[in-house]
Design a protein that fits this description.
The chain is of the alpha/beta class. Helix content is 28%, strand content 28%. The radius of gyration is 20 Å and the shape is globular.
């Protein structure tokens, strides 16, 4: 039995991402074998597939930081054939083979059971981006940000931003969505945004302190956008930062933190604890409108992944992309 996988390699300085036919014998020596149904497209996938970012740490590597599927065989008592499972992060496509493959062997510690509220496709419509958005929402809740307050979501047309907009609106916050794509305003308002502002309003040098507006922030952009958002956050407000599409630098001062008590909360979705993952997925099952999830999602074949990787790096992908690995 053979199956197709996107294999990333680097031989003598030549970086490649090509489809290959593999067998079970080619897979890593892990305890759980999964028939993969779907994966996703994330910004990190774009960097890994194109080689435009140093994501892959060992070669050869099967791409795809997410997967959902059905357990085919297991040497771990926690999982049995037929179980519906998913993986977000855990170094897939970096140090462990990922989801752009018809089958994959996975460390059982990486596996999360798919909540009954979702099917395998919906689990990947959420994927790392949606799960990260929920981790950000939980971080703001845990920091004491009260419902009804104004929450800024940056990079709102992207995967994290789209899901964050829908979640925070459903939870009762007034969501202000920031985007560089002004034509997407109707899309963002459909997801629940009360107001849409231009990226340029934030992507600029900021004063150490600016007029306070945001009670909470979910930022997937970084750079000057994050610095400005922090400078505009209310006393005892909180900023959950999870992305760097706009840059890895952070132009800020200590003033928002010591004069307003602003909390900057780093959100790491890759290696967070199983307990926190389970909490996030349980909340996604209750706090994410599946109709809005469907409206922000497209399904694309794995055969198009190299072009899709280029598209997401150019900012030409809206919402969530589910990758059907069988096509």
């Amino acid at each position: 039995m053979t199956f197709r996988a996107l294999v990333i390699d680097d031989k003598s300085g030549t970086y490649t991402a090509e489809f290959r036919d593999l067998t079970d014998a080619d897979l890593p020596a892990e305890k759980v074998l999964v028939d993969v149904a779907y994966s996703t497209l994330n910004y990190k996938d774009g960097l890994a597939v194109t080689g435009k970012g140093k994501i892959v740490r060992k070669f050869p590597m099967v791409g795809g930081i997410d997967l959902s599927g059905i357990v085919a065989a297991s040497d771990d008592p926690a999982f049995k054939p037929g179980d519906k499972v998913l993986v977000n992060g855990w170094g897939l496509s970096e140090t462990h083979w990922g989801g752009y493959s018809g089958r994959q062997r996975i460390n059982p510690q990486f596996l999360t059971r798919v909540p009954p509220a979702f099917d395998l496709s919906q689990a990947m419509a959420i994927g790392t981006a949606g799960y990260t958005a929920m981790l950000c929402a939980l971080a703001l809740e845990d920091a004491g940000i009260q419902k009804g307050g104004e929450v800024l979501v940056t990079g709102a047309v992207g995967g994290v931003g789209s899901v964050a907009t829908a979640i925070m609106a459903k939870l009762g916050y007034r969501v202000v969505a920031s985007t560089g794509r002004v034509k997407a305003a109707d899309y963002l308002k459909m997801l629940g945004a009360a107001e849409v502002i231009a990226r340029a309003d934030l992507d600029r040098p900021a004063k150490p302190l600016e007029k306070a507006r945001w009670h909470g922030v979910i930022d997937s952009v970084g750079g000057k956008t994050l610095g400005t958002a922090i400078a505009q956050t209310h006393e005892e407000g909180a900023v959950a930062a999870c992305g760097l599409a706009g840059g890895t630098d952070l132009p800020t001062t200590v003033m928002p933190y010591i004069l307003r008590g602003v909390k900057l909360l780093g959100v790491n979705s890759v290696t967070c604890s199983a307990a926190r993952r389970d909490r996030a997925w349980a909340r996604l099952a209750t706090d994410l409108d599946t109709a809005k999830l469907a409206a922000m999602t497209t399904v694309e074949p794995l055969s198009k992944i190299k072009q899709l990787a280029e598209d997401i790096l150019k900012g030409e992908v809206r919402g969530r992309v589910v990758v059907d690995v069988a096509k």
